[in-house]
Amino acid sequence: ATEAEEKDLVIVGGGVAGYVAAIKAGQAGLKVACIEKRGSLGGTCLNVGCIPSKSLLNNSHLYHQILHDTKNRGIIVGDVKIDVAQLMKAKDTSVTGLTKGIEFLFKKNNVEYIKGTGAFQDEHTIAVNLIDGGETSVRGKNIFIATGSEATPFPGLTIDEKKVVTSTGAIALQEVPKKMVVIGGGIIGLEMGSVWSRLGAEVTVVEFLGQIGGPGMDAEISKLTQKLLTKQGMKFKLNTKVTAGDDSGASVKVNVEAAKGGKEEVLDADVVLVAIGRRPYTSGLGLENIGLEADEKGRIVIDQEYRTKIPHIRAIGDVTFGPMLAHKAEEEGVAAIEYLSKGFGHVNYGAIPSVMYTHPEVAWVGQNEAELKAADVKYKIGSFPFSANSRAKTNLDTEGIVKILSDAETDRILGVHIVGPNAGEMIAEGTLAIEYGASSEDIARTSHAHPTLSEAFKEAAMATYDKAIHY
Ligand code: FAD
Ligand code: NAI
């Protein structure tokens, strides 16, 4: 081991939370080191999450559209085939470009990048097992834990990332499976299920709850989304639980029954995707050496300023509370550095958007109807269908709605829920509206360019307190 060197800040984990904090620290003039064990920066998001999944979603959508949606547009195509190896290569090119980009930004902002696995030796020292062999240690006046999350395993099924996969295997399959069973109808299940369904797999999603998309998705939007995905060929078994699995044969068998109990059924698949959620990852981090504990869900407990009970040690991103989203991790990376360098920082947890990148996309921000009802808030609903939007009509892409929920008394926008083309881009306007405390009338009186999909947003806002024009 080499002599321990003292930094202002040592960050364990080079995912979105960690790398953003590292860059911000460099910009603030702090002496900073970031330790990452993967051999590549950007964490789950860039390497095996957001980025590769969106590459596959984009290209599988193109393929699906060329197969099923060209004739009526006056485009005649010949022999369309899928080349899975090239599809994966295109994905890898996007990933490598972006992860290398972070390395460049580290150099530009004087961040020391240490490639290895870090573990607490004491409250100020991280011992590092280097990827290239050997060990070192680094001392920090401050330490950030940004070690992220991992897929929650399903008891009884062994993940081999070939037949029984998490999202990591699902973004790297070498061929299109004939039959795929997805356990969990949340965001990963629906995004990755979409990819392989578009490429030709028969996909069945088994979901414990009565709706897809997880509890954050507004029930009306979830129902509509399920209808649209069903039309594309995906099958759903809601209110259904997986009771057992058998991966010993050539195919995988999954036993399912009604959540409330009932007749059992056995599903057979070439590939089973386990997508029942993710859990904070702190394995091998040596928390026991400094007396830090995680809560019952594995999250590192922090205060408002991201401090653990050892105040110079902070935790940000998936490893702690809140939604497991890259842009949430990024906001925390910035805010934690601001607390450290200036003494104040801020993240508005009420204005963090969620996007599911299926086609059409689903996006929301703020509260949904069930949440407002539970909080006994009186609200108005304005909704507008893309079938009445001129741009959606010219694009022959008219499925979906924009739905805006605003306070019945003040007209302040409380929630925005969209299923439709480009919903993921459009939600930025809703997020900004909530961030600035806009009323729906503020939005409706703002000129939106014609013809754009955003006009559906304006008209939905108008419909909350008045009538929409085009519907
Ligand atoms: P991570 O990105 O998990 O990074 C933590 C890093 O720490 C890892 O690289 C790990 O190797 C490293 N590490 C752990 N322990 C140690 C140690 N002891 N020493 C050194 N290094 C260590 N979010 C979105 O907002 N949009 C999306 O479209 C989206 N798509 C997703 C798709 C998939 C398939 C998955 C799985 C996730 C997706 N997410 C998406 C979620 C997003 O990836 C996470 O919220 C985000 O990566 C969290 O960032 P993080 O820095 O907290 O953790
Ligand atoms: P999730 O929490 O979104 O969904 C898991 C689903 O599985 C839930 O609907 C749950 O009811 C269901 N479930 C749990 N146990 C079950 C069982 N035994 N049988 C049947 N169903 C069961 O988790 P998911 O999809 O694994 O994603 C993990 C995280 O990754 C998400 O929380 C999300 O934050 C992040 N992510 C974000 C993306 C995005 O922003 N576009 C894309 C992919 C992941």
Morphology? globular
**Number of strand elements:** 21
What gyration radius follows from the Cα positions, in whole Å? 24 Å
Counting copies of identical and different chains, the oligomeric state is: single chain
* Mean pLDDT metric: 97
- How far the N terminus sits from the C terminus, by CA atoms, comes to 71 Å
* Percent of residues in helices: 25-40%
Characterize the largest beta sheet: strand count, sense, and whether it forms a barrel: 5 strands, mixed, barrel
Number of helices: 13
Instruction: Report the structural category.
Output: alpha/beta
Ions and ligands: flavin-adenine dinucleotide, 1,4-dihydronicotinamide adenine dinucleotide
Share of β-strand residues: 25-35%
Task: Output the strand order for the largest sheet.
Answer: 1-2-3-4-5
Residue stretches low in confidence (pLDDT < 50, at least 5 long) are none
Care to describe what's here?
There is one protein chain. The protein is of the alpha/beta class and 471 residues long. 31% of the residues lie in helices and 25% in strands. Helix 1 runs parallel beside helix 8 (326-341), helix 3 packs antiparallel against helix 4 (84-108) and helix 3 (50-68) packs parallel to helix 6 (187-198). 46% of the residues are buried.
